């Protein structure tokens, strides 16, 4: 039954001249928000999303909502990941610098172990340097 209904729907949609396009409604205002320094959607961050909906009459803050706790945890996890990746990059740069210095020392050692020219070769100007 479900397969025949699905086949019927697909055949109707295939032969129909109208097509349903939903991309414009999904991205409505997204370009304008990005150009003005706002979030892609109105509910990603900002006072309406981050601040509590209410507070007690005596001024005490309301307990955080589930969405606020989830967003706070996501932000903390993102911050931890950024710090971890940044430290990995710093460590990689240090290792690269050490390898460069080691290669430079090895090249200097190799050059110091070469024979010293004597006689006419010593007085002749070296074209390489």
TrEMBL record:
Q: Which UniProt keywords apply?
A: Mitochondrion, Ribonucleoprotein, Ribosomal protein, Transit peptide
Asked if the keyword Ribonucleoprotein belongs to this entry, the reply reads yes
**What GO terms fall under cellular component here?**
mitochondrial large ribosomal subunit
The organism's superkingdom is given as Eukaryota
The record, for Pfam families, names: MRPL52
Task: State the InterPro entries in the record.
Answer: Ribosomal_mL52 (IPR034596)
Q: Does the keyword Ribosomal protein apply?
A: yes
Q: Which molecular function terms from Gene Ontology are attached? A: structural constituent of ribosome
Tell me the compartments it is located in.
Answer: Mitochondrion
GO annotation (BP), single: mitochondrial translation
What does the sequence similarity comment in the record state about its family? Belongs to the mitochondrion-specific ribosomal protein mL52 family.
Record-given protein name = Large ribosomal subunit protein mL52
């Amino acid at each position: 039954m479900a397969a025949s209904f699905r086949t019927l729907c697909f055949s109707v949609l295939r032969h129909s001249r109208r097509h349903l396009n939903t991309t414009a409604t999904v991205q409505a205002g997204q370009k304008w928000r990005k150009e003005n320094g706002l979030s892609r959607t109105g509910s990603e961050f900002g006072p309406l999303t981050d601040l509590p909906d209410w507070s007690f009459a005596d001024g005490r803050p309301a307990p955080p909502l589930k969405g606020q706790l989830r967003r706070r945890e996501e932000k903390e996890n993102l911050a931890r990941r950024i710090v971890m990746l940044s430290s990995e990059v710093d460590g990689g740069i240090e290792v690269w610098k050490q390898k460069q210095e080691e290669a430079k020392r090895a090249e200097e050692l190799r050059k110091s172990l070469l024979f010293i020219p004597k006689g006419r070769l010593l007085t002749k100007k070296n074209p390489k340097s």
